[in-house]
Amino acid sequence: MKVMLRRGDSGQLVVYVAKKDLEEEVVQETQGESGKIFTLANGWELAMPPLEEPLKLPKTVEAKRLA
């Protein structure tokens, strides 16, 4: 699914999923096999492709929701 990454007002990384009209803060970032895994405030885990450092925001990426 396509998601948009941006920084919130508090400086926290925020993920927006347009298809679900969902906007949640990232509460945890872990390193996965092929990129980062973001855990959102609602409990979702999203596998991200490898992202450049430093991250230039806003950015739209193809993410995969983990079960």
UniProtKB/TrEMBL annotation:
Which Pfam families does the protein's record reference? NifT (PF06988)
GO BP annotations of the record are:
nitrogen fixation
The organism's place on the tree of life at top rank: Bacteria
Q: Which NCBIfam families match?
A: nifT_nitrog (TIGR02934)
Its name, as the record gives it, is: Putative nitrogen fixation protein FixT
Instruction: List the lineage, top down.
Output: Bacteria, Bacillati, Cyanobacteriota, Cyanophyceae, Coleofasciculales
